[in-house]
Amino acid sequence: MGAAEEIAEFATLLGELKQRSGLSYEALAKRAHMSTSTLHRYCRGDGVPADYAVVSRMARLCGATPEELVELHRRWVLADAARERGRRAAAPAPGASVAPVRPASEEGAPSVPVPASVEAPSHRPRRKSWPLIAAAVALVVTVATALTLNRGDGDPSAHGTAPGRATAAPLTVSTRTYGWDDPQCEGKYLVDRPPAEVAPPVMGQDVPGWVKAHRAIAADEQRVALTVQGTGDEAVVIESMHVGVADSGPPPAWNAYLGSSGCGGGVETRSFDTNLDAPHPVLSPKAGQRGFPYKVSRTDPEVLYITAHADTHDVRWYVDLQWNSAGRQGTIRVNDHGETFRTSGSRGRPVYEFLVGGTHWYRDA
Predict the structure, then answer these.
(1) How does pLDDT run across 231-249, given as a tens digit for each residue?
(2) pTM higher than 0.70 for the full model?
(3) Which of 10, 264, 322, 341 lies at a CB distance of 3.0 to 4.6 Å from 53, suitable for a disulfide?
(4) Number of separate domains in the chain
(5) Is 364 left (phi over 0), alpha (psi -120 to 50) or beta?
(6) Where in the sequence is the domain holding 254, given as residue range(s)?
(7) Do residues 213 and 356 share a domain?
């Protein structure tokens, strides 16, 4: 199935749910907190939401059943991967000169500069309903960048093994470092700047831009989503995943800021925990989840969630994913779009919060 068909299948189901709800485009868009034109684009297949929270919110407003939510999630994963392949294909060659783009938010709010400096989600799930302040973000970053790894070309972050020769992996892995499963879940970040130089917190797909602009570090807890999809007709078995630590040291003496990561959920997931403070971190299935192996194909991807915890260390880490297919086997090293994941404890650091409807950060602890 080609990229256009995958996006069309997602749009078709979304359009069917909208039609069945009896809501007009204007009414549904208002309830889903987006513009009418954006909703039109999604239902026509002219665009794919970068964040599943948007999809989940629309589907629930339309009265989708649990089975439809699962199917819609599957189609969104395929459509999002197709959109990303198209984006990479259209990217300019290395060294090409491109004028910077400063996109507006999905709801049409203008982009404005923000102070430059954080990184990943939080420790305390207190569910504050933070306001969506998209105008505070100058750059919306595409988070689910598909990494077609294990090419056998010497890439240190992707490698495969086969008897006597290198082998190309028959699967791709896309990473999303803000994969929280509740639209109001909180994120906690370490930022090396005073409150006056930190923009207000944001939600959903604006979070990566906020994090990148502030050069933040995920504090206490980080949830990473790995979307694994086959590239050919043969099924691929994911045999295991292992956490590797590239570097570990004391947490930086920065301020901690509480914000919302705003990622949706409601779909049964393959979820794992890991303690990065341990000498040798391991992945453990969360309650109710089975462990490996899992099977993926081009039409049946899997989304694997890892919740990494750190209390007393600042850890740079990665994941090695072992696979086999049709007598071949290999290992893919998964990271944060070319960089290691980074999660740090924040014990003893000053904590700041931004009140709902407020105008500034205030000291919480």
Answers:
(1) 888 899 999 999 999 999 9
(2) no
(3) 264
(4) 2
(5) alpha
(6) 134-363
(7) yes
